[in-house]
Design brief:
The chain has about 425 residues and is α+β, with helices and mostly antiparallel strands. It is about 25% helix and about 20% strand. It catalyses: [protein]-dithiol + NAD(+) = [protein]-disulfide + NADH + H(+); [protein]-dithiol + NADP(+) = [protein]-disulfide + NADPH + H(+).
């Protein structure tokens, strides 16, 4: 396939002053690597990324720029918005009037969100669809690699026992996904990760730690290896981390929450009252707060509402990555030997109340809920707005991201529905 066949015979290009554009022949892309830039002005992440990409493209050495073109494929809502947005871009564009082709390109390359950069070889073969992520990881180096017909990211097969870190990139060799031991900076101002091979070449300004493998069982001492101390509520008193699991404690709840989150603010006082109730009769269950707040003041004010200790705001990165939660509030309960008693503690507390805490205080799991009792975290019924959805869950694959409870399923839907199996405790909802 040629670019003329893929993109049509004409593209748009700015004049030298940049205030107007004219049609050019798509044949100008001949023998070049082409990055299709799916974007729209109405999309905030696009508006943030476009000027970054534009600056990188302008600064690219001619050695690479002569072999690489970027073509804007718009998802804007009208011609005027397209015209204004295109003024920010020092590259070519598919004519806005060619709406059918824009839609076809989105379907052909399975575009599920924007901004997205799909990199194509001179023969229209896809090199990568991770262009945005590669630019964020390596700036101009990504574009230099594309101009040579290569992608920046690479990876390898996992060996037995190795974990695949799907959302991590090695900042030195650009392995993505990162396979095997994963080292990173826990400073909240940093985003720096290394694979095991690159650790000896590390010159990062902050100390690095090796991340714990999600779902692997570790002693509590190991889970807290990056936590220097705990903070008592209502004071700045520092206490040793080991006090959390000493004195015959049977289990520990890891509570991820933040004051800016309305569901967290609703759940925290409920959990706090139940915790006070169980502490009056048993000290077998403890909770520790790992904050997702954005600043120290919010963290301290929110922690003052809780009757349990907290991990310092800047010391929770290792735990957040280990537990791999998809939303907050989240409550994970581990036994004193590190075995998972519940990865859905919030649901357990909401449905069972004090019974849940009593079970954990004995170091026991709760019985699995029946299909009619199961709560689907972060899932809402699109028929009656039940949130969270409780009981049998049905989804429409045609509509996409459309769920119904059993009562609404019985009312019918325009497309076929499939029942979603109730997950095990180790699965995600």
């Amino acid at each position: 396939m040629t670019f003329s066949e893929l993109l049509g015979e004409k593209l748009l290009q700015h004049n030298e002053s940049g205030d107007e554009y004219a049609e050019i022949s798509t044949n100008q892309l001949h023998d070049k690597t082409v990055a299709l830039y799916f974007s729209a002005h109405w999309c905030p992440p696009c508006r943030r990324f476009t000027p970054q990409l534009a600056e990188i493209f302008k600064q690219l050495d001619n050695e690479f720029k002569n072999k690489l073109e970027i073509v804007f494929v718009s998802s804007d809502e009208d011609q005027a918005t397209f015209d204004e947005y295109f003024k920010e871009m020092p590259w070519k564009a598919l004519p806005y009037s060619d709406r059918d082709r824009s839609i076809e390109l989105g379907e052909k390359f399975n575009i599920e969100g924007i901004p997205t950069l799909v990199i194509l070889s001179p023969t229209c073969e896809k090199i990568t669809s991770d262009g945005v992520e590669e630019v964020r990881a390596a700036s101009n180096k990504a574009l230099e690699e594309w101009s040579q017909g290569k992608c920046l990211f690479w990876s390898r097969e996992a060996r037995e026992g190795e974990f695949v870190w799907k959302n991590a990139t090695c900042n030195l060799c650009y392995m993505n996904p990162l396979v095997g031991p994963h080292h990173g900076c826990t400073n909240k101002e940093c985003s720096f990760d290394l694979c095991e091979t690159c650790v000896p070449n590390n010159k990062h300004e902050h100390p690095l730690v090796e991340y714990l493998i999600p779902k692997k069982i570790y002693p509590l001492e190991t889970l807290f290896k990056s936590v220097p101390y705990l903070l008592n509520p209502n004071s700045d008193e520092k206490v040793e981390t080991k006090t959390l699991w000493q004195n015959d404690v049977k289990s520990v709840g890891f509570y991820f929450s933040a004051h800016w989150c309305p569901p967290c603010r609703g759940f925290t006082p409920i959990l706090a009252e139940l915790y006070k109730e169980i502490q009056a009769t048993s000290h077998g269950f403890r909770i520790v707060f790992i904050s997702c707040d954005r600043d120290e003041e919010s963290f301290k004010n929110y922690h003052s509402e809780m009757p349990w200790p907290a991990v310092p705001l800047d010391a929770g990165a290792l735990l957040k990555l280990y537990f791999q939660f998809s939303g907050i509030p989240s409550l994970f309960v581990l036994s004193s030997d590190g075995t998972v008693l519940s990865s859905r503690g919030r649901n357990d507390v909401s449905s069972k109340g004090i019974e849940a805490l009593q079970s954990w205080a004995r170091g026991e799991k709760l019985p699995s809920p029946s299909p009619d009792e199961y709560q689907w975290s972060y899932v809402r019924c699109d028929g009656c707005n039940m949130n969270p959805l409780i009981g049998q869950r049905y989804c429409c694959l045609t509509c996409g991201n459309y769920d119904l409870c059993s009562a609404c399923e019985k009312k019918g839907h325009e497309h076929p529905l499939e029942r979603v199996p109730q997950p095990n405790d180790d699965d995600d909802d």
